[in-house]
Design goal:
This protein is α/β, with parallel strands linked by helices. It has helices spanning 22-33, 65-74, 85-101, 108-126, 170-174, 185-194, 217-223, 226-229, 384-407; strands spanning 13-17, 37-44, 79-83, 131-133, 138-143, 148-153, 176-177, 232-236, 242-246, 272-277, 282-286, 293-303, 313-319, 326-332, 338-346, 354-358, 367-376. The chain is built from 9 helices and 17 strands. The chain is globular.
């Protein structure tokens, strides 16, 4: 994408989501250089008092709204801000708390991205613009034959963010422009510095937002009644030995390795939280094998048109906790469900986790599906003919036995 000045001869308007960080700033800058009429839009989703430490704020939290406004003035584009706190509370925080209470995977970044893209699309229509844009490192292409739009991965594995845009509505993808699709994060940082775009670097966090316990503790205390926190014991799943007591199930999460306990004895090495018993408040700790699986049922499956669902499909899966692809066979079932048979064991695999299905594991891979993890484990295919034949034989044998029993007198 060229950086030379171009005459502003385009009538096309693009609303760009701005967070005050260099990714979105460079996206707006590049579109402006291409001659589009760019409109900057910031979404204020939460207050800083949601956490005790600012380092645990969501990655998209706007640190300084005035700085975003100054950036827009610098590149001469109009700036708007919208208050989305109520929607963030409903679409992201409430769902996060629900997942914590039921030991399901953290889907906060997926839910937040969905929310932001819908708000951006609504503002595009309100401002009578033609397109929307973000600073995500991925691409969107149209399939001429099926008239569908698909997200494709960035060429650089480390920079790729295609995972987050999986499952977007076709109306949104149709109007979406992604200027950073061919760039690496290092290149974007260089552009930001060279042109002094007044942008901050992204908040450094391990994995997704709200992943660590310290990022959710204040939120959980404010939203969950004490009666639902459910204190109890932490038990070793292998030895059934009580390791200690915990203050509440919601304060912990699956895969947690360093967890605080009361009345604790000697903690065994290489164990993590692997399971919950909601009826009595017990948390189970054990080795990673309890969260390692060769296959899983998937639910709420969204899949592209034109795929032959009559036979298994070889595909590649990405999970939210890893940039690596996992090869799998996808076996379609009914009611938006399917089964994934992985080529290798997967860790960690958590119920409710969002997974993204790609057509390949190479550069520019296309997202062809999106789903959630259901029941985990290996499944065995059933020969229905043999099954009913055996069942019929068993019924006949039982009838014979019943007749024989009736001949005896007591």
């Amino acid at each position: 994408m060229a950086l030379d000045n171009q005459d502003n001869n385009s009538t096309m308007k693009v609303v760009v989501a701005l967070t005050g960080r260099e990714d979105s700033a460079v996206a707006a800058f590049l579109l402006k250089k291409q001659g589009y009429q760019v409109i900057g839009l910031s979404m204020v989703v939460t207050n800083e008092d949601i956490v005790d430490n600012k380092d645990f704020l969501p990655k998209c939290h706007i640190l300084d709204l005035d700085k975003v406004k100054a950036f827009c003035e610098k590149i001469k584009i109009p700036f708007y801000a919208t208050d989305a706190k109520a929607r963030f509370e409903n679409d992201v925080l409430d769902k996060l708390v629900s997942n914590k209470l039921t030991a399901r995977a953290n889907a906060s970044c997926f839910n937040c991205t969905q929310m932001r893209m819908h708000i951006l699309y609504q503002k595009m229509k309100a401002l009578k613009a033609d397109y929307i844009s973000t600073g995500h490192y991925c691409k969107v292409y149209k399939n001429i034959n099926s008239d569908e739009y698909f997200i494709h991965s960035n060429n650089d594995v480390k920079s790729d963010q295609s995972l987050l845009l999986a499952g977007m509505d076709q109306d949104i993808l149709k109007h979406l422009m992604l200027p950073l699709g061919e760039l690496r994060q290092e290149e974007v940082t260089k552009i930001s510095k060279n042109f002094n775009l007044l942008a901050d670097k992204s908040i450094e966090q391990a994995g997704f937002c709200f992943k660590v316990k310290e990022a959710t503790e204040k939120l959980l205390i404010s939203k969950i009644p004490k009666s639902m926190l459910k204190a109890g014991q932490i038990i070793n799943k292998q030895s059934e030995v009580v390791q200690g007591d915990h203050k509440g199930m919601a304060f912990h999460y699956l895969t947690e390795k360093e967890f605080e306990m009361e009345n604790s004895g000697t903690l065994e090495k290489n164990i993590e939280i692997v399971d919950y018993n909601f009826s009595n408040g017990q948390i189970f700790a054990g080795s990673k094998k309890f969260l390692t699986f060769k296959g899983t049922q998937i639910v709420s499956l969204m899949i592209g048109k034109g795929l032959d669902k009559r036979r298994p499909l070889t595909c590649y899966i990405k999970f939210q906790y890893s940039n690596s692809f996992v090869k799998a066979n996808l076996l379609f079932k009914n009611n938006q469900t399917a089964y994934l048979d992985f080529a290798e064991e997967v860790y960690p695999l958590i119920k409710g986790e969002n997974i993204v299905i790609y057509d390949s594991n190479s550069r520019n891979s296309k997202i062809i599906g999106y789903a959630q993890v259901g029941t985990r484990g290996e499944f065995k295919a059933i020969d229905r003919v043999e099954f009913f034949k055996n069942k019929s034989n068993n019924v006949e044998e039982e009838n014979k036995n019943d007749q024989n029993v009736s001949l005896f007198k007591f």
